[in-house]
Amino acid sequence: MTTERTVAIGSGAAELATEDMVLNIGPQHPATHGVLRLRLTLDGERITEVEPIVGYMHRGAEKLFEVRDYRQILVLANRHDWLSAFANELGVVLAVERLLDIEVPVRAVWTRMLLAELNRVLNHLMFLGSYPIELGAITPIFYAFREREALQQVMEEATGGRMHYMFNRVGGLRDDLPAGWLDRVRRAVAEVRAGTAQIENLIRGNEIFHARTRGVGVLAASVAAQYGVSGPIARASGLDFDLRRDEPYLAYDELDVPVVTRTAGDCLARFECLLDQVGVSLNLAETCADRLAALPPGPISVRTPKNLKVPEGHTYAWTENPLGVNGYYLVSRGERTPWRLKLRSASFNNIQVAPDLMRGALVADMIAILGSMFFVVGDIDK
Amino acid sequence: MRFYGKGILTGLAVTLRAMTRRAVTRQYPEVRPDLPPRSRGVIALLEENCTSCMLCARECPDWCIYIESHKETLPPATEGGRERSRNVLDRFAIDFSLCMYCGICIEVCPFDALFWTPEFEYAEHDIAELTHERDVLREWMWTVPPPPALDPGAERPKEVVDALRAAAEGRPA
Questions:
Q1: Nearest-by-CA chain B residue for A291
Q2: A82 touches chain B (CB under 8 A)
Q3: Coil, helix or strand at residue A21
Q4: What's domain A60-352+362-381's superfamily in CATH?
Q5: Whole-model pTM above 0.80?
Q6: Does B27 fall in a domain?
Q7: What are the tens digits of pLDDT across the range A98-151?
């Protein structure tokens, strides 16, 4: 798709001695969504080498996990990827519940799935708004934030938080749902579905957007697999892998989870994967709401001891987070705190592949490629 | 047939349609937001209920609650009885510049002394002024909303179940 012309300036321009230039993008740069630093080596406009320098926002989450009890860990787990707070909490409690051998009430299971899907939509809407900004389209983010507001309102009504929900507890959920909440969820879902259609009309067929993204930053499926790339980015390359379908947790095995994939592997495919996943997640959320309404009355959590000690052992719980596979490897020695809680975050693996995509690209495409990696810096730096 | 520029025109049509609709902007200082009762705005303290047991301060993940207290001895209530000692709260402060708004303190409080309120207008110019003492925390108690009614599918609270059983058996609850 990209055509290139070499324009020689006067005679003898070809023999001009050139020198590579090192250019730092970040750590403070609007295109990096935070404090990610890229050290580019440029030959003219062309990138010859990229080195992502991570860790500016390292908060030592894994080490802090070791000195916090399981409820306090949820506070921290909420925050490494601040756009997928609910999904992060979920991974921790799933691991702990597995070691404790706790059966979670069915109401809690479906509520967790409903909230996880709403959280996925919230996350994706953020990137559907911010990615066009990086390419110069300012309008979509206003539409995205309008839709986010509708969802955040129902999330806040149930959990009390707009970003860090703190709603999961080992054994279930903190509180039961407020009366009439499920109807408001259905209304919000319908509203967001209509709003997302507008975002789609705004940007999906846009020729300028296509010119910036089609054929740019192509990620091959084999490379994605080698780097451990997951989530919508991997699926845009044709890696048909989604834990909700392939290794169902909660009650995803009772749902038919359509997995959105593309084969092109370019920036446009990644964006379209995200866009289509919003629709899928909204449908799943609606199904969950219907199932929840049909459930017989029952508890939302099981009682756990105040001084919660997890028996000795280890387990690995992974979940399909909005940005990819998020895993917690929990090793317990029978105490109130884990002996070790290893965090496998989606963005950390996903960003590793960025240099591969950027090598040989132009500086202007670097922004398009970086934006399409859909990462959260806190999730990279942990 | 698809012509070049159709995508841009579709986009512009969306913008045009949005232009004819009412704006979703909220006029915040003039119109106050309607926040749900569970909204985690700030933590209020009902100091009459506080026994300075320190559970909240110890369970706080980043230790942003400061409690100081002393013991007072009360004379025996009856002749020849034992002297009673009780804790008297001297200081209760929450540093909201550290607080992560997780709500663990409220959850662990065994005496219902801490509550969430949706109140949020307490920004300060200096970070040190975000440490609020017990008089401010007590004032926030007046803004604590009643909890929302629960979903019909929710388990009934223990008190309701007990009362219903008592009524069925024809004895006082």
A1: B153
A2: no
A3: strand
A4: Cytochrome-c3 Hydrogenase, chain B (1.10.645.10)
A5: yes
A6: no
A7: 998 898 999 999 999 999 999 999 999 999 988 998 888 888 899 999 899 999
Q: What is the CATH number of the domain that holds B139?
A: 3.30.70.3270
Q: What would the 3-class secondary structure string for A364-382 be?
A: HHHHHHHHCCCCCHHHHHC
Closest CA to A345 of A16, A12, A59: A59
CA-CA distance, A267 to A368, in Å (whole number)?
Answer: 7
Within A33-105, residue ranges assigned H as helices are 61-65, 70-80, 85-100
Inside any domain, residue B172: no
> For residue A159, what is the nearest residue in chain B, using CA coordinates?
B38
Closest by Cβ to A179, choosing from B4, B15, B151: B151
**Inter-chain contacts counted by CB atoms under 8 A, chains A and B:** 113
Percent of chain A with pLDDT over 90: 36
Q: Which residues from chain A sit within 8 angstroms of residue B10, using beta carbons?
A: 201-202, 205
Q: Is residue A46 less than 8 Å (CB to CB) from chain B?
A: no
- pLDDT of A31 higher than 70: no
| Measured torsion, CA atoms of residues A171, A175, A178, A182, in degrees rounded to the nearest 10 | -30
Taking CA atoms, what residue in A is nearest to B158?
A299
**Residue contact B102–A75, C-beta within 8 A:** yes
Q: Are A357 and A351 in contact (CB under 8 A)?
A: no
DSSP states of A170-239 as a string? TTEESSPPBTTHHHHHHHHHHHHHHHHHHHHHHHTT-HHHHHHHTTSS---HHHHHHHT--THHHHHTT-
A201:B35 CB<8 A: no
SS3 B23: coil
Q: According to the model, what pLDDT value does residue A7 have?
A: 58
Question: What is the residue-averaged pLDDT of chain B?
Answer: 88
Task: Note whether B44 and B143 are within 8 A (CB).
Answer: yes
* Cα distance from N-terminal residue to C-terminal residue, chain A: 38
User: For A169-182, what is each residue's pLDDT tens digit?
Assistant: 998 898 889 988 99
Instruction: State how far the Cα of A91 lies from the Cα of A73, in Å rounded to an integer.
Output: 11
Flag whether residue A209 sits within 8 Å of chain B, measured between CB atoms.
Answer: yes
Nearest CA in chain A to B36: A157
pLDDT in tens, A299-335: 888 888 888 888 898 999 999 999 999 999 999 988 8
**B54: containing domain:** 36-147
Encode pLDDT of B97-118 as tens digits: 999 999 999 999 999 999 999 9
What are the boundaries of each domain within chain A?
A: 60-352+362-381
- Whole-complex ipTM: 0.81
